[in-house]
What does this fold into?
Amino acid sequence: MVSVTFSAITLGLAALGSAHPSKRAIAGTPEYVFTLQAQGYPTLTLSATNSRTLSNLDFVFERPSVYSGTPAHLNETKLQFDLGDPDFPSGYGMYFQDIGDNYGITVPVTAIYAGGKDGFSIASDGTLGALTDAAFNHFFACNGTVNGEEILQLKWGVFKSNGENPARCVAATLHSFTPSA
Ligand SMILES: *[C@@H]1O[C@H](CO)[C@@H](O)[C@H](O)[C@H]1NC(C)=O
Ligand SMILES: *[C@@H]1O[C@H](CO)[C@@H](O)[C@H](O)[C@H]1NC(C)=O
It folds into this structure.
């Protein structure tokens, strides 16, 4: 059993999407925060937020002055989010349904406790890569409703057959950076 030292900062579940998430150091594992790069949008940070489904999180984009983003690390090829709660040690893995080549469709990107997809990677330029199951699969930032709030939400989807973005969405690239501890 590998011993892992967690930081003493324990913020509890109320801290989801908080302005001061724990920067928990996991020995030898770099922690990343992600920002949105999308046409017509300023730099926004990616934060995990409680969803209506137990043990599921949704992802929203917020101004960095309000939310500094939810840190994550790669565990093999799973992208695991670190919520700063000792009861949930980095157990939430990024997940989305496979959507094949259904033009114009989008599905929410979520994080599932003790789960998540394989196939994530961080390119040398810091871009988050995900395993695609069809050409034209992409991350999108979409106007949506999360917990009753109109907000920009992270989705996964397929461009329309004419190459346009899906409805209410803009193609998104997630750029990682390492927050200073
Ligand atoms: C990697 O994931 C496994 C299985 O979910 C977990 O037991 C382990 O603690 C994780 N390691 C890190 C460094 O997050
Ligand atoms: C989201 O809604 C806002 C406000 O109506 C609008 O300005 C923006 O263009 C929409 N974004 C997308 C990606 O559809």
User: Anything to note?
Assistant: DSSP finds no helices and 13 strands in the chain. The longest strand covers residues 137-146. The pocket of 2-acetamido-2-deoxy-beta-D-glucopyranose (ligand 1) is lined by residues 26, 29, 75, 80, 90 (CB under 6 Å). Residues 1-23 have pLDDT under 50 and may be disordered.
